[in-house]
Every structure is written in structure tokens, then in C-alpha cells.
Design goal:
By secondary structure, the chain is an alpha+beta fold. The chain has eight helices and 14 strands. It is 25% helix and 21% strand. Bound molecules: fe (ii) ion (FE2). Fe (ii) ion binds next to loops.
Length: 283
Amino acid sequence: MNDRLKTIVDLEKYPIHNLNSQKIKDLIIRCKNELDHNSCATIPNFILPESLKTMNLELKKQLDEVYMSTQSINAYLYAKDDPTLSKDHPKRTFMSRYNGYLNSDCFKKDSEMKYLYETEELLKFISACLGVQPIFRWADPLACHAYNVMKPKGVLPWHFDSCEFTLSLMIQKPEKGGVFEYCPNIREPGNENFEEVKKVLNGDRKRVRQLVLEPGDLQIFKGRFTLHRVTKIEGQRSRYMCIPAYVLDPYRVNTPEHSKAIYGKVLPIHIERNKSRSDGLAD
Ligand SMILES: [Fe+2]
């Protein structure tokens, strides 16, 4: 038994250290089912209240290091227009953004969140819930387990993630707004489904679902295949999340353009490993 893990995750309710326990087997079946149908599964009160306080505090101590991005962006996380495409192509829809990250390389060595992300127990549990093996921790040193900060009036427009799978841990909820909305399974490897993406960007709500998360809840999410956004933060309290990510390719990192636009800088690894995606999807 991992002594620190039991102070972070509610292992009595969710014994992720023992994948053979009946409780976890049942939970894995439920999550896999939700992920297959809705691209998304939630586990309530996954993080213990004391650990949640620690995470909240470690982020608050470093709020001045958060990189805020305000550049308008398309759903594929690009800021640059491509005039060779037709005028109504979804890649030419740019939406305003006001969103920040405490990059993973800013985390203290003994950070609660970093510790949780680096445990084998969490990796194996998430892999089982997804039914995908192997998955890897993201090699991107800025983005792999960043804290997401949305201040009052903050907004994160419709987009697809660069990494295949993300966890979202709610750390602090805003007074109002900041609702996570998503369109399950809207694209897949080899099929961008631009027509359906375009409809959502133009305001069609038919495919849109909302997810309510409370502090301490864990969401498992297939962010590369699911168009998603966070609505505007209303009221005075910021929304804090942690977004640990997992990938299929242990070599891949963000493109230099994404890294600059979203995390505020480019490291040598982003340049060395800049190559096109093997799944054929845009990002
Ligand atoms: Fe995302």
C-alpha cells in the first residue's frame, strides 16, 4: 500500500491500488461504459477533502506564475487563418479565449498533484477505465499535469485537445458559469467530420451535453475526439482545475505553435519532436 496515495485518493471508496478488488472492477466497468458511449466518465469525491485543500493551496501560492492567454483561437487550437480554405470551414472560425495555466515545470518537487500524476496506481486505473493499453504519461514538460486557471470572465472556447486522454480534477468551483460542455465522439482517427463540427460552432445544440463537476470529483475524458468548451466564468470566484493528461505515443509533445500560444513558451523538446500526428487529425 502506497502511504502517500491513501492521503490523496479516497482508497476506501475507490481502491485503485488493487485492480482485482470487486469495488474497482465494478467501477472500471461503469467508467468504460460511460467512456465508450459519452467520451467521458466521472467519479465523485475521488480526492479526499484534506488533499483538495493542499492542491488548492499549492496553486494559490503560485498564481503569479500562471500564464494567461487571450489570443483568439480555432477549434484546432490555431490562431492563424488559412485563406486557402472556404470561408465557412470550421478551421476559419476563431473564438475569443481568456484562460490560464500553471505549467507543469513550475510545480514544486513535492507537489501533491504531481505526486498523484506520477503514481503507477493512477496510470493503471485510468488505462483500465479507458480499455486502452498501454497509455503513457504525456512527455510534454509544460502541459503534462498543468493547473488550469479561469478567472472571472474567463472563457475557453470550443476545441479538441492535442493529447488523447485527459483527467479533470475540480479544485475550486466558480460562483456561476464555467460549465463544461462537450459533444461526444464527434471525430475519430481519419475522420474530422467537419460538417458536424461546423454546426456546433454555429450554435447548434443538438449534440451538446453539459457536465457538472464538484470539487474533488474526477472526470476521465477523451479530449482529442470530443469537441468541448468551458462557458464564461460569472461572479468573482475563479475556477481551478488540474488537467493531468495521458497519450498513446510516449514521444509526442505539443507543437511549438501550441506550446507558445497556450503555455507561453517553446522548449527545445517541442522543436526536436515537432512532427505530424500519426492519427491524421488536425491540431
Ligand atoms: Fe481541452
